[in-house]
């Protein structure tokens, strides 16, 4: 026997009935995007490695440790499986001059790849929903994106403030971050003996990321560090306060977290995360912010932009934890076919129902014909269908099919099977 092949560690199959939950979540996301006027975009899974090195930052964890990068054996191009969606979206916007006619609201759903230690809710192939607003500089779109996520939590049955909490910060502009960076480095150097090896490595390359450390021994040093918000100028503070004013007016609770920095170098001004305490250490469900310099950084004309991304695996895990995931999808009806009934008659009748939007399942016949009616009724009941359509010899001979409710009492018959679709709407209300 040949060796059985298995999926790569951290890259998982999604099979029924779990796949129905993914479809349900995707439907919720698409409905949300339609309400807010966002249009779908789709970009390649494989991109030039330089896109992420230039876009995310050469000294970020993603670029240094987590990217799946390789050399094309045909032409030597350096390629990478996309580790996140924003850089590819901006590359596509630039390449197709998509902002020529003005700003855009876009979203995407798809797989991303990071080579990290697999754990529950965090995998090497994971799926991300992203929303990007490009070409608009005002704080209103920052607030809109945050309110949009709050609306999604409501659609999914999550409680804002209990199941998920909003954290907010401003990273200001590059010159403000530079002044803060110098003060931060000076502070950390004065306490160098308390820094761990990772912090020492980042001290001069990316000191802002040290503020995000989870090392308990470093918390006093981090807590006493200079806060970026104290270095913000008038315009940056005005932008931040305008975002907060919208959230306050909407009654959306949030916490200003001065240590919130995000993991990519392209952010400026508003940054935010939705976090939860219900998943242990895997607390971030959704995060994003403004990245006004990235479009120019990746070769386009200067344009502001802001967006967010959420991990679908982690969100589904949270929904399961709080009991908000739907049950398996169930058909409206299940066809029970008695021996001797002409199969063409059954198939035509079922197709007429399906044409009306009714979901109906037929138990496939074996080589010796249909299974026993008793066995078919058991399968009909197990399927979760609300009705069994009983095709018995006597009913079919009279041009009828018996409709047996499986979840409630009573039985009715439909005459003239050739016109069964005429009764579909009343027989099986959606």
From TrEMBL:
The keyword Coiled coil appears for this protein: no
Pfam family membership, one: HGTP_anticodon
CDD domains linked to this entry: HisRS-like_core (cd00773)
GO CC terms: cytoplasm
Main localization of the protein described in the UniProt heading: cytoplasm
Record-linked HAMAP family: His_tRNA_synth
Name of the protein: Histidine--tRNA ligase
């Amino acid at each position: 026997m040949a060796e059985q092949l298995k999926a790569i560690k951290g890259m998982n199959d999604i099979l029924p009935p779990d796949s129905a939950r993914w479809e349900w979540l995707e439907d919720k996301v698409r409905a949300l995007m339609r309400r807010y006027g966002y249009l779908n975009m789709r970009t390649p899974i494989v991109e030039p490695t330089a896109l992420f090195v230039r876009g995310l930052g050469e000294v970020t964890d993603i670029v240094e440790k987590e990217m799946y990068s390789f050399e094309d054996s045909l032409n030597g191009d350096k390629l990478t499986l996309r580790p996140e969606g924003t850089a590819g979206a901006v590359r596509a916007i630039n390449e197709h001059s998509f902002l020529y006619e003005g700003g855009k609201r876009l979203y995407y759903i798809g797989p991303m790849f990071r080579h990290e230690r697999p754990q529950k809710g965090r995998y090497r192939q994971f799926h991300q929903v992203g929303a990007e607003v490009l070409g608009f500089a005002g704080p209103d779109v920052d607030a809109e994106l945050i309110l949009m996520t709050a609306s999604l939590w409501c659609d999914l049955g999550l409680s804002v403030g209990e199941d998920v909490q909003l954290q907010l910060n401003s990273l200001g502009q590059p010159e403000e971050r530079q002044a803060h960076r110098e003060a931060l480095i000076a502070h950390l150097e004065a306490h160098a003996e308390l820094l761990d090896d990772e912090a020492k490595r980042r001290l001069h390359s990316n000191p802002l990321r040290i503020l995000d450390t989870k090392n308990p021994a470093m918390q006093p040093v981090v807590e006493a560090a200079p806060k970026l918000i104290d270095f913000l100028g008038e315009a940056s503070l005005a932008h931040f306060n305008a975002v907060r004013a919208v959230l306050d007016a909407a009654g959306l609770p949030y916490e200003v977290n001065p240590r919130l920095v995000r993991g990519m170098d392209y952010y400026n001004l508003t940054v935010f995360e939705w976090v939860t305490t219900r998943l242990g250490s895997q607390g971030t469900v959704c995060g994003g912010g403004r990245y006004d310099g990235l479009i120019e950084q990746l070769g386009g004309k200067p344009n502001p932009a802001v967006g967010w991304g959420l991990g679908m695996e982690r969100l589904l895990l949270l929904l399961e934890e709080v009991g908000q995931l739907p049950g398996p999808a169930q058909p409206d009806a299940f066809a029970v076919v008695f021996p001797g009934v002409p199969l063409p008659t059954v198939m035509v009748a079922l197709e007429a129902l399906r044409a009306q939007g009714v979901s109906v399942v037929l138990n496939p016949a074996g080589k010796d014909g249909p299974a026993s009616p008793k066995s078919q009724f058991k399968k009909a009941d197990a399927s979760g269908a609300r009705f069994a359509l009983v095709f018995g010899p006597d009913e079919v001979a009279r041009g009828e099919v018996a409709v047996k409710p499986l979840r409630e009492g009573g039985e009715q018959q439909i005459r003239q099977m050739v016109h069964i679709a005429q009764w579909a709407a009343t027989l099986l209300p959606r």
